[in-house]
Amino acid sequence: MRFECQSGLDGRLLEKDPELAKLLKRARFQHVRIAWDNSLSDFRSIKRQLDHLGAGGYNRQDVFVFMIYNHDIPYEKMLKKIEHCAKWGVQIADCRYRPLDALKDDYNPGKHKTGQTEDDYYIHTKGGWSDQKIRDFRKRVRQHNIWIRYAKDKGLAYDHRMEKWSAIHTTLKYFHMGRPPQLEVIEKSPTWKQRIQMLNMVRSYYRKNNLSSLDFSAKRLGDIDAALQKILRTIEAAKK
Hints:
Blueprint lengths: L11 H5 L2 H8 L6 E3 L7 H13 L8 E6 L5 H14 L2 E6 L34 H20 L9 H15 L8 H5 L2 H19 L12 H19 L1
Helix pairs in contact: 4-5, 5-6, 6-8, 8-9
């Protein structure tokens, strides 16, 4: 059994008692997140907290630094935080701020070309934030995390094709299918292309209808394809 805390831990507790990192590891906590919600000047403290987690047995690339953006710390300083995380080799868990009394949030990540206004979702203009800066920050965090997971340890730079492979990997993880083959293999295989298309269609339907994910970990690829085809036929029949 493993455990995970979705919130950012107060890493200052690690500075007071570094032994807590070993206890967390021994208790089988994974994907530890520490909070860096305060100023950029706290970077030395954050570095010490990460060092304690490393001494406790955690791999840097499996650790996340939690950050609130679209808040009082301006966009430019938030980019500096990303730079520090790149040096440290840790991922980022970004959290877009909105007031607790905000009843409406129609933020649409798909509108990156046309953009949105304060009428659609909360934009902290007092902190210098804008729709464009919010979207750019989120994009940079996504690219940073993909680079940390798939390229940094290989000495490679970020490549936009990694995002495509990462999206496929996420889909396969939903069905407990492990890692996909290299993107070059997928692009040359009509069978893999069709399989991924079917997986995405089923995943979208299951998530939309709050259904439990399927576990294909023990199935052969041919059996998975047959199961997906059967599910999609059932979905189509239900629409008629």
